[in-house]
Amino acid sequence: MECTLIGAPLQIGAGQLGCEMGPSALRIAGLRAALAELGHSVRDVGNLAPRSFDEIPHPNAAVHHLGETVAWVEALSSAAYEHSANGMPIFLGGDHAISAGTVPGLARRAAELARPLFVLWLDAHTDFHSLETTASGNLHGTPVAYYTGQAGFDGYFPTLVHAVPTENVCMIGIRSVDSTEQAAIKRTGITVHDMRVIDEHGVAVLVRNFIEKVKVTNGLLHVSFDVDFLDPDIAPAVGTTVPGGATYREAHLIMEMLHDSNLVTSLDIVELNPFLDERGKTAKLLVDLVASLMGKRVMDRPTLAG
Q: Which of 48, 97, 195, 223 has its CA 20 to 30 Å from the CA of residue 103?
């Protein structure tokens, strides 16, 4: 497969600085080499940069960096559309606000191909606030509400031409949702699997059911992977740690099943904050997980010395 690495060092959507170093950390951890070793053609187009912008005021005084975020959304949407024409774009975040740009761009491409776009959201959070409901003002908590066409973005974020139907979104690993988001999501068709569902049923059946839904509709599948999907014991480099996340094996199983499906056409890797990492531990794990998504097997992994 032809893979395109696209850096998106956006960090103003989050409350804690450091995500802008995420793309560099993933590169230093060997992402390009890991993909090349699997036989993929890899092109790194460097980091995106937004256009010049003015600050945009909003009635919700908590909202911050709105003008800059909008500029990033425009740049990312354009890049996602462009780089999805041939091969697989892999976006290196940056905080999860990047998905407010990547997903609409991919949805535009899917519409041109007359195929539905599906999103697998691997995250501890639902990110389903609007500009009006966010209490923190951190816009990494808004992308899903935006790209599914919910109210509260008109006149601020770019006009959404191709919204992703809520029934095409599946969230796995959720374990931190406030009451406003819960109420909003219950009015939609989004599938939400929290950690209790994983504990009761295992990740395999959840992923398999969603893959089948994508397959029967000839859909395109975008995977948006937030570091806080993982348990902080194995992935500490994130500013929004929530205990009780996915294990090493659960995460690899998901990636291996996604590879077997042959349906994944694009990927976000977000919220990696190397300032909080332990000697590159989280970055290296993310590279290994992306390698699993792209075809690496357990039998390919050397045994480490004890």
A: 195
